[in-house]
Amino acid sequence: xxxxxxxxxxxxxxxxxxxxxxxxxxxxxxxxxxxxxxxxxxxxxxxxxxxxxxxxxxxxxxxxxxxxxxxxxxxxxxxxxxxxxxxxxxxxxxxxxxxxxxxxxxxxxxxxxxxxxxxxxxxxxxxxxxxxxxxxxxxxxxxxxxxxxxxxxxxxxxxxxxxxxxxxxxxxxxxxxxxxxxxxxxxxxxxxxxxxxxxx
Length: 200
Fold this sequence. Notes:
Shape: globular
Number of domains: 2
Low-confidence stretches: none
Order of helices and strands: EEEHEEEHEEEEEEEEEEEE
Radius of gyration: 21 Å
Mean pLDDT: 85
């Protein structure tokens, strides 16, 4: 998922920003209103590889023309939030930016979030599964790289009318990862934590 089309030029985060506060110049603040959705990320300067602060929003195998793609990273970024308050010096956000905010990052209003399937880039995830044992111990399975093996399905379960919960079911494919300790290729790490005073 990335941020939708961005037609208004970016304004830039000043010193003192945080995951929920974006200090801006006074003239830049005039461009925003409470309720605006904003993408916060760096200008594209011709880099290749994974781009986007926090979880990568895309992968570029070939560099693009930087001047005509300056907003590219903000168009695919997951670093988005909604403006909840505006003071004389800053935008305050209703939720924390998962990629943070640093001086020099561009801030742009966006109208929607979007994603696409296919292409040469596939979103990757990491997961930690914890299984409780019969003796009170826990076995942990850590997968550093996972990709969706099929489109996720969502089912709805009624809690008590009119309340319900949406449950997401996903099929994931483990991908190889290089262990930095010895350079070996791995799919999963397993750990066992016995319960206190229990037999191993």
